[in-house]
Amino acid sequence: MNNKIKQFLLISSMYLLNPSASAFDFNQARETAPLMLPQERVQATGEVSSLVRDLSQQLEVTPTQATGGLSAMFGYARNAVDADTYAKLENSVDGLSSLTTNRTSGGLPSASMLAGLDSMAGVNKVFSAMGLESGMVQQFAPIVLSFLESQGVGGPIVGTLKGLWQPS
Questions:
Q1: Are residues 28 and 44 in the same domain?
Q2: Which carries the bigger pLDDT value, residue 167 or residue 94?
Q3: Cα–Cα dist 76/72, whole Å
């Protein structure tokens, strides 16, 4: 079931559960629906879980949105850089592979969706599906790059990712 349908069903059920609401604001409900996704299904592990927490706190996004955004960014990176470079990156950061593993629920991008990311436009679409504005990628990037440097990821890899995550 795609995210648009999930959002519609969530909004519809909210209305049905409280039919006496005098002024139901569909625009507000559409914007906040992604924030109401089950938080217990967030799957970031290892050091990456601290990055999810930092993004959530600094950018005021939910852990699900932070994890989904990171999944999109690293899914694109995995598809855009050579396999050896991505393997070095994945081996340098505990839990990085948890962002791109197969998941089918919890409002997070699926492995098949991540496998198809080949541009920043695709990353922006995932951000949008997560209820994040496309400009949020540019707010995520410096925090993520700083985190990677603190994990000992080398300058050439960080530079490559910085170039990838520039606006398209």
A1: no
A2: 94
A3: 6
Q: Specify the pLDDT at position 100.
A: 75
Identify whether the C-beta of residue 40 lies closer than 8 Å to the C-beta of residue 81: no
Averaged pLDDT, 105-132: 79
Domain count across the chain:
2
- Name the pTM for this structure: 0.71
Spell out the SS3 assignment of 43-106: CCCCCHHHHHHHHHHHHCCCHHHHHHHHHHHHHHHHHHCCHHHHHHHHHHCCCHHHHCCCCCCC
Do residues 20 and 45 both lie within one domain? no
Q: Could you tell me if 1 and 83 lie in one domain?
A: no
What mean pLDDT value characterizes the chain?
A: 77
* Same domain (yes/no): 6, 48: no
Q: Are residues 3 and 78 in the same domain?
A: no
